[in-house]
Amino acid sequence: MISRTKFIGAVEIGTSKVSVLIGELSQGSLHIIGVGECQSRGVIKGAVADFRAASEAAHTALMAAEQNAGVRIDEVYLAQTGGHLDGFYNEASVNVSAADNLVSAPDIDTVCRLAKAKNLPEGRMVVHHLRRPFRLDGRSVPEPEHLVGQRLEVGYWTVHGQEGKIADNIHVIRGFNIRVAELILSSLASGAMLAGAEEKQNGVLVVDIGAGTTDYVLYRDGCAQVTGVVPVGGGHLTNDLSLGLRVTEGQAEKLKLRFGRGTVATKDRAEKVWLNGDFAIGDRQFPRHTIEQITAARTAEIFEVVRKKLGAAFSSEKTAAGLILTGGTAKLPGIDEAAARVFGVPARLGEAPGWVAENLRDPGFSSVLGLLHYGLSARAEMAPSRSRPRAPGWMRKLFATA
Amino acid sequence: MSQSKFNPPSTRSWRDIPQQVKPRTMGREGRKRFFLAVGNLVGLVLLLGACGWGVYEVVSLWETDPRRITAPTKGVPIRDMTVRTDGVLDKDWVRRTLDLPKGTSLMEINLAELKGRLEAGRQVGKAVVERRFPDMLLVTLQERTPVARLMARSGDAEPQAFEVARDGTVYSGYGYDEVMLGSLPFIDGVRLVRDGSGFAPIEGMDVVADLLGTAQASAPALYRSFKVVSLARFALDRTLVVKSSEVEAITFGASQDSFYRQIARLDYILSEVPAQATSGQLKSINLAVGDRQVPVSFENAPVSPGSHRAPAAQSYGTGPSLGAALFQPPSRNSTSSSKRDF
After folding, report:
1. pLDDT exceeding 90 applies to what percent of chain A?
2. A163 and B25 in contact by Cβ < 8 A?
3. Which of A233, B21, B154, B162 is the most buried (most CB within 10 A)?
4. Last residue in a domain, options B117, B143, B169
5. Among the CATH numbers 3.90.640.10, 3.40.350.10, 2.60.120.920, 3.20.20.70, which is that of A234-300?
């Protein structure tokens, strides 16, 4: 068997920055060998608005990563986010075809195809089909083949998005003449990286708060149940500060990073903080309580929107593992407290696994790290089903009727 | 719902988005990568094409003229030539015969052809030509040794002397000592047959070589007196007739007796004849009839035997000018005073 080293690029074209990681895939093991980052341009709320500007930014980050790794990327796993993404749940059921009620592979294929077979509105495209556990006569089973039952059910959470916006995202990478091998939802990437198998089984909500969007995924029974994107992020906190304090976006960003909080902690309403702290002309003071109030209000609002979008799918009782926060805005102090208040479950900042290098442990990298993790896992799952030899039709018929 | 009736609706996936992008929509780096990839592809195709063409050329060359395959592997020009021989040929002769163009490299020469050139003159019995890298040619020669000479003419040309080797090969010798050549007897009584640019080998020359070699080794004086060796009767009765400066015809038998004994008898006779006053000039001696008696003939009739050394020869006259006698050589323990040592 010929073993070939492949260099995979994980790319996230975010609203505030473009992140690229290069993984060296050799004999089944992955090593991260290159990092590239660049300030994003031409991207609004996770969607490409200016193709040329977005391409330049993405290509700069790709080149930086390639130079850092000293190799050329073979293919790319691309993160997909944006307010245009949506999802729905659809399930299907079939009667087990065999006389002895033994579930066969064709039964599974049929029920899966039925569950995925729902027409999308014009101009929409599927990004992911996320399967929930099978149910055989009402009981949940991870793998129903060769089990005995009469009725087999399965449900899929289908993530879909606007065709044009997905294509724009892909074409930015194709402009660098690299093939996009996998398109992965940002929230799934972050969740794959930060939530463990046990947490997914017990129920956990992963919320990735970026600059332009907030992506979330709710896991239960070991599977992703619901995903979603809210087109609100850390950029809105900056914007609120800019409007509320009458400062520029840059100044507001500085204030957010230095004094912003997810909850109001300052008791003294008279406490003031300096804008720059260098006593230069133009430097001025702002009430710290006000800054915290503005950022906390917007943070709480983001969580409330997420909670509202989750609706009945979320319940604190069924989310025993709590809530994991990640993304650049998750670095805001007190944001976990704010999340816990809104969702009523324990919240914590996501931590990358121990094998991740120190410079990549920042929450801003969890999504791009997860791209490699999720992409390789998905490919590994697809490989056996692709390589499974299919028996000829007459043979299947012969054994089916035996 | 049965599987056969199931037709999934068209749900388009992101994988349906065509990823083919025209170069003009690519970024600068993307275009660079694109053209590099195209260049690599073209290069690969050209490389494969060149490999295929090369294989085709080699195969076709191998089928048509395999010797040309070595031509492309030119090496350093031949700088020196070493000649090893067991004869008289020298490096100049070899160089002239090979006639290699100046600057010829070792890998360009055809060893078989050079060997053929060296052996074409027939003085060389066997030639071995070897490459000694990086720039030397080694020529090893095994030469024929002449045992006799032969006068022959080619067409209307003047008769020319050729040398004849033991194996009957007739060739025009080069580099031999003139004195040595002058001492070689001529061959007569043969019919030369053309064989290519030369002559076919003469049969019976091995017997002639044995006779002459024995004579040269045991009785050099006798050998020097041999002028012509005739093979005219060899095919009939395997006898050789030698014309010497003393006797017109000395007949040697190839199958009767050893040449050593025949030459001993000849020497005895030649030494006895002057001692007998009755003897005339010797005309013929026939050593081929046996070892008991040797018929000899004289130009003049011999005087009646018995006057001086009667037991040595019995003569019987046939005429006034021609006589004949039978010599009885002495026994092995005879102590004749005229016996020569050989």
Report:
1. 70
2. no
3. A233
4. B143
5. 3.90.640.10
Would you state the pLDDT for residue B226?
Answer: 92
Q: Rg (Cα) of chain A, in Å, rounded? A: 23
Number of residue pairs across A and B with CB atoms under 8 Å?
Answer: 83
Q: Which of A18, A67, A170, A174 to mutate to test the interface with B (most CBs of B within 10 A)?
A: A174
Please state whether beta strands A179-185 and A75-80 pair in parallel, antiparallel, or not at all (unpaired): parallel
E strand segments, B86-219: 124-132, 136-143, 146-152, 160-165, 170-171, 186-188, 194-195, 198-199
Q: How much of chain A is helix, strand and coil, in % rounded to 5?
A: 40, 30, 30
Q: Where in chain A is the domain with CATH 3.30.1490.110?
A: 86-159
The angle formed by the CA atoms of residues A12, A18 and A19, to the nearest 5 degrees, is 65
Ranges A148-152, B260-264, B309-313, B323-327: which has the least confidence: B309-313
Contact B29 A110 (CB under 8 A): no
Instruction: Kindly list the residues from chain B whose CB atom is less than 8 angstroms away from the CB atom of residue A97.
Output: 3
The verdict on B277 and B134 lying in the same domain is no
Q: CATH number, domain at B118? A: 3.10.20.310
B171 lies in a domain? yes
Report residue B227's pLDDT band, with 50, 70 and 90 as the boundaries.
Answer: very high
Residues B106 and B178 in one domain: no
Tell me whether residue B8 is in a domain: no
Q: Which residues pair with A95 in a beta bridge?
A: A151
Q: Which helix (H) or strand (E) holds A209?
A: strand A204-209
Residues of A with CB below 8 A from B10's CB? 119
Per the structure, the count of domains in chain B is 2
Q: ipTM of the predicted structure?
A: 0.82
Between chains, do B8 and A117 touch, taking CB under 8 Å as contact?
yes
More confident residue, B146 or B36: B146
Overall fold of domain A86-159 = Dna Ligase; domain 1 (3.30.1490)
**Strand pairing of B136-143 and B80-85?**
parallel
Residue A117 C-alpha, separation from nearest chain B C-alpha, in angstroms? 5
- Tens of pLDDT, residue by residue over B53-69, are 999 988 888 888 766 66
User: Does residue B181 share a domain with residue B259?
Assistant: yes
Contact A321, A202 (CB under 8 A): yes
The A-side interface with B (CB below 8 A) comprises 55-56, 59, 62-63, 72, 80, 94, 97, 106, 109-110, 113-114, 116-120, 124-127, 161, 163, 166-167, 170-171, 174-180, 183
Under 8 Å between Cβ of A101 and A50: no
Domain enclosing residue B260, as ranges = 146-327
Q: What is the pTM of this model?
A: 0.60
CATH of the domain at B269: 3.40.50.11690
Based on the domain organization, do B297 and B235 belong to the same domain? yes
B339: number of Cβ within 10 Å? 15
pLDDT band at B323 (very low <50, low <70, confident <90, very high): low
Which residues does chain B have within 8 Å of residue A179's beta carbon, measured at their own beta carbons?
19
Q: Which of B110, B126, B143 is the last residue of a domain?
A: B143
| B23 occurs within a structural domain | no
Whether B154 and B299 share a structural domain: yes
Contact B271, B341 (CB under 8 A): no
Chain B residues with CB within 8 Å of chain A CB: 1, 3, 6, 8-14, 16-17, 19-21, 25-31, 33-34, 37
Decide if B74 is inside a domain.
no
